[in-house]
Design goal:
alpha+beta; five-stranded antiparallel sheet; 16 strands; 22% strand; globular; binds uridine-diphosphate-2(N-acetylglucosaminyl) butyric acid
Length: 289
């Protein structure tokens, strides 16, 4: 299978990031197995790109091969209240499908832009409701290129975490929803839509930091007086301080990274709290201060 060179800024919602030197678009499980085995033989690691909504990619780009799943990985099949959802299905598409089939329980994911695979890897959701609560099993490919099915009790899901075998690539997820009326779904969606009003639009990677057990990252950053500060084309959102916005799409990854390290430094100094990144970094960044 042919790889190509692409700019990661085109594939991430923050719209920053240099070239992925090896970028593979993969349509089927057999293609995926083939490429994983090839990379294993070359002793190469890999990244899997979903919707790019939780990624900060370096301006210098990444040497690690990037795999983008599409084709067969975008299928949804239904048996009763149970859905088998391809890992490349965007969450908004899954929600639309669930609504069309009177299936509820997933409305709390409203507004999250990622793919289903990305949502599982990061156990996406709200503060208190996560996609793991709907997950029956996860299908994937091991680093050796073999198919494997894993279950939630093996994955030790936590707040924005899951423990997958190393280099496991999620291909599909089995979710259990429940039957509801369309009006009940509408009501729940309205509730979550209201909640999302506190979040800014524009180019961002969603929340930059995980919440700390002692307080929400957004409140800590605001109380440290950091709303609205900027570096180059990046700004700490005046709407929600845990969002960094790439204004006019002109920021670099370095601008975003400088804001991140400055926030970490200031919040640590003021409150003694070390904020941990929720977004994943790809490529090289200077060490945090
Ligand atoms: N707050 C401030 N200033 C701010 C932002 C928030 O004082 O600039 C305060 C709010 O007033 C509120 C509290 O902090 O009292 C919590 O804020 P919010 O309800 O917005 O929730 P959050 O903890 O900041 C979490 C998730 C979001 C998810 C929302 C909605 C994390 C890191 N964030 O945000 O997830 O959308 O709940 O349920 O867990 C993401 O993961 O990318 C993400 C955005």
């Amino acid at each position: 299978m042919k790889s190509k060179r692409v700019l990661l800024g085109k594939y991430t919602t923050l719209k920053v990031g240099g070239p992925a030197r090896l970028f593979y678009e993969i349509d089927s499980r057999s293609q995926l197995q083939e490429i994983v085995r090839e990379l294993k033989n070359k002793h190469l690691n890999y990244y899997v790109l979903g919707n790019g909504s939780n990624i900060l990619a370096s301006d210098e780009g990444v040497d690690v091969p990037v795999l983008k799943l599409r084709g067969d990985f975008t299928a949804i099949t239904r048996r009763g209240n149970s859905l088998t959802v391809g890992s490349a299905v965007p969450l908004p598409r899954l929600m639309e499908y669930a609504g069309e089939h009177n299936l509820g329980g997933i409305e709390f994911m409203y507004g999250i832009p990622g793919t289903v695979g990305g949502a599982i890897i990061t156990n996406a959701g709200t503060k208190d409701k996560w996609i793991s609560s709907l997950t029956q099993s996860v299908f994937g490919i091991t680093k050796g290129g073999f198919e494997k099915k894993v279950f939630p009790d093996q994955l030790r899901f936590g707040y924005r975490t899951a423990h997958f075998p190393s280099r496991f690539i999620i291909t599909a997820v089995e979710l259990t929803l429940h039957h509801v009326t369309k009006s009940a779904i509408k009501k729940m969606l309205l509730f979550y839509q209201q909640r999302r009003r506190t979040q800014p639009g524009g180019f961002s990677a969603g929340c930059i930091f995980k919440n700390h057990p002692r307080d929400s990252a957004g409140r800590l950053i605001e109380q440290a007086g950091l709303k609205d500060i900027r570096r180059g084309g990046a700004i700490v959102s005046p709407v929600h301080a845990n969002f960094i916005i790439n204004e006019q799409g002109k920021a670099s990854a370095k601008d975003v990274w400088e804001l991140i390290t400055y926030i970490q430094h200031t919040v640590k100094k003021k409150f003694g709290i070390s904020l941990q990144l929720e977004v994943k970094t790809w490529g090289r960044f200077s060490p945090s201060r």
